[in-house]
Amino acid sequence: MTQDIKIFTGNEFFRPGESVYIHRSEQFPGFIGVLHKHRFIEIVYVLRGEAEHVVGENRYSVKKGDVIIVNYDTPHMFRAKEGFSAYDLMFTPDFFDASALDSASFDALSSSFLFYSLFPDETPLGSDLQLSSSAGVEFAALFDKIYTEYRAQDKGYIELIRAYGIELIIKLFRHLEQDRRRSISVKQRQLVMQAVDYLKENFDSRVSLGDLAARTFLSKDYFGHLFKDATGVSVSAFLQKLRIEEACRLLTATDRTVTDIAMTSGFSDMKFFYQCFKKATGTTPARYRNKTEKET
């Protein structure tokens, strides 16, 4: 028999006319140890102690300094150990940006006017995210400020909470981007290296980012980010480098025409070939050939 999932809505927390709320876990024990989901986004900051966070079939430990982002409508629960305490910030996307008014999930913020520049295309946010405690002090101060303003309700408190919340989300995504770059798995790196080998063997053919992504069963944008994280350059830049290297080899080793060499190297547009060649070598194909002939 499946466990019943308790549903929390904003009406149970938000004050009239507001779409943000914060409490400490010990003030709402009904959250702890109970499988639930909610009609808002939740960002949890662990103040002290440890707990097991259960999200679907996944279970992982959280400890002091960790930040956990739980998306809209995601069944989850915290199984707290003794001494566990956490801030629990709840909000809907429109609290930060009215353009997200009709959206519900944390992902919706990625397309909002306020935050769109922070999000890589198709960053796989998933149903939950966890950041380790390395940035704990930085986040603790922001949660303290939000909590204090919410409790005091002094004039302008909502505007300050919004400002602190924007700072929090920006810093969260800075850390997520850093973590993403550090956490390329062995399997993902193998996929990129397979793509690199394929490019080396087929650089003279029409090869696109979409073609490579399709071979890995990943989305085009996500694979593009993965490739750049692993190699330091984009797919197109890597492909151009291979083609220019081949053109240089043919200019040095053969007497074929520049046009023939460009086409053989994978360039179908001569103007583009000249632009790429000069950018890479600092000279024209003809001068490159003459220079290497004089040096031999």
Structure characterization notes:
- With 296 residues, the protein is of the alpha+beta class.
- It folds into 2 domains: 6-182, Jelly Rolls (Sandwich); 186-295, Arc Repressor Mutant, subunit A.
- The chain has 9 helices and 10 strands.
- It has helices at residues 136-152, 157-182, 186-202, 209-216, 220-231, 235-253, 258-264, 270-281, 285-295, and strands at residues 6-8, 20-24, 36-38, 41-48, 50-55, 58-63, 67-70, 76-80, 85-91, 128-131.
- The strands form 3 sheets. It has a 5-stranded antiparallel beta sheet, covered by helices on one side. The protein has a 3-stranded antiparallel beta sheet with strand order 6-5-8, with no helix packed on it. A two-stranded parallel sheet has the order 1-3.
Domain count, please report it.
2
What's the N-to-C terminus distance?
81 Å
- CATH class identity of the largest domain: Mainly Beta
What fraction of the residues are assigned to beta strands by DSSP? Answer: 15-25%
- The CATH topology name of the largest domain reads Jelly Rolls
Q: How many helix segments? A: 9
Average pLDDT across residues?
82
Spatial order of strands in the largest sheet: 2-9-4-7-10
Low-confidence stretches: 110-127
- Structural category is alpha+beta
CATH homologous superfamily identity of the largest domain:
Regulatory protein AraC
Number of strands: 10
